[in-house]
Amino acid sequence: MVSPARVTAWLAAWLLGVCAAGGTLAARTASQPRGAITFGGGDGRSCDAAIVIAGARDTGAGVKAQRRWIAEHLPGARRTGSALARRHGRVYEVVSLTGAGAPSVCFDVSGFFGSW
Q: Signal sequence: where (predicted)?
């Protein structure tokens, strides 16, 4: 069961319009092995420029990919929370951070969200 605080965070993100529609799916190329996780889209500073995670087979793999992207691109950043938003048929996760100069990063998780 999802905690009431988590539901409130999701609704707040959606109601405030944290994320706008956008983001393009990363294209798989012939040189990428099947099942490889790749990152496309933008830099994640807003949901207009969300980081698109492609190739994650389920939510667990997608969350690991988010952590990997943060560690590689924002060394020293620590995840402090997150909120989900659904907008124009897409699902976004806004990850709150501390350290490394970025207050949050937006990921387009539409490709794997809810898959277990």
A: 1-26
- Give the dihedral of Cα atoms 60, 66, 68, 69; nearest 10 deg: 160
Radius of gyration of the chain (CA): 14
Distance CA 103, CA 100 (A): 8
Any residues with CB less than 8 A from the CB of 26 and at least 6 apart, and which? 38, 39, 40, 41, 52, 54
> In the structure, what pLDDT confidence band is assigned to residue 113 with cuts at 50, 70 and 90?
confident
Over pLDDT 70: what percentage of the chain? 69
Secondary structure class of 3 (helix, strand, coil): coil
Cβ(51)–Cβ(105) below 8 Å: yes
* Domain coordinates in residue numbering, the chain: 38-116
